[in-house]
Amino acid sequence: MPRLLHLDSSADLETSVSRELTRLFVDTWRGLGPGHAVVERDLHRSPLPHLPDAGLHYAPQLRTDSERPDPAAEGLQAELIGELTGADAVVIGAPMYNSSMPSTLKAWIDFVHVVGTTVPVDGSGKPLAGKPVTIVSTRGNNYAPGTASASGDFVVPPLRQVLGDSLGMSVSVVTVDLTLANRLPPLAPFAAQAAESLAAARVAVRDLAATLGS
Ligand SMILES: Cc1cc2nc3c(=O)[nH]c(=O)nc-3n(C[C@H](O)[C@H](O)[C@H](O)COP(=O)(O)O)c2cc1C
């Protein structure tokens, strides 16, 4: 039974573009057949705590003697890693907040990126290797390649680094630029470009869900 893990982190529960697109991914996935299951984790509605103990960044055998994390936090970490390893594919809504990812999403990353567990120290046998993850990143300004702000995206590069390079997941990225074109007057001239960016993202999300779920 193909299982999708669906993560959202937008604090906007009414007009969020990333929520619209991850929902489109989920609906497309579910539409592929009755066996296509979805596990939902809304990191904004049900935020995780910040990582409470540095020892949680390391598997038990790699901790120092003084690192003894709270068993409840270890339990939560095991639950989150279990959701990730148990999924056949992952979709993550990742809006840009102050040039970086929402702190709610960063907290999830801090829990699941574990040296000696999800990232084996000898580099072999990565449990998440090849697992597809689709990052849907929305941003008010324009960060497309070649634009003046292109180097100011600190959402997608760190997610690629951690999920792709470190955990070995197979990363696809869908971005939407200029989502604030209808709100901020200086961006109003770019309304058509914004609409094009969103339309292209809808197509990309549907295609990815259909391909990855087949
Ligand atoms: C707290 C906060 C910080 C933001 N910081 C930025 C930013 O640094 N750069 C930018 O282009 N847009 C920024 N925005 C705009 C959002 O990236 C944009 O509204 C995006 O569409 C949010 O994703 P969502 O539609 O899925 O909620 C910010 C919005 C919020 C609420």
TrEMBL record:
Gene Ontology molecular function, alphabetical: electron transfer activity; FMN binding; oxidoreductase activity, acting on NAD(P)H as acceptor; oxidoreductase activity, acting on NAD(P)H, quinone or similar compound as acceptor
Co-factor remark: Binds 1 FMN per subunit.
Known cofactor(s): FMN
Keywords attached to this entry: Flavoprotein, FMN, NAD, Oxidoreductase
EC number: 1.6.5.-, 1.7.1.17
Classification via SUPFAM superfamilies: Flavoproteins
Repressor found in the keyword field: no
Gene3D superfamilies: 3.40.50.360
Pfam families: Flavodoxin_2 (PF02525)
Main enzyme class: oxidoreductase
Domain of life: Bacteria
Catalysis: reaction(s): 2 a quinone + NADH + H(+) = 2 a 1,4-benzosemiquinone + NAD(+); N,N-dimethyl-1,4-phenylenediamine + anthranilate + 2 NAD(+) = 2-(4-dimethylaminophenyl)diazenylbenzoate + 2 NADH + 2 H(+)
Record: residues binding FMN: S10, S16, V17, S18
Domain Flavodoxin-like fold: 3-171
Record's function text: Quinone reductase that provides resistance to thiol-specific stress caused by electrophilic quinones.
Subunit structure, interactors included: Homodimer.
PANTHER family named among the record's database cross-references: FMN-DEPENDENT NADH-AZOREDUCTASE 1, FMN-DEPENDENT NADH:QUINONE OXIDOREDUCTASE
Family of this protein: Belongs to the azoreductase type 1 family.
Protein name, UniProt field: FMN dependent NADH:quinone oxidoreductase
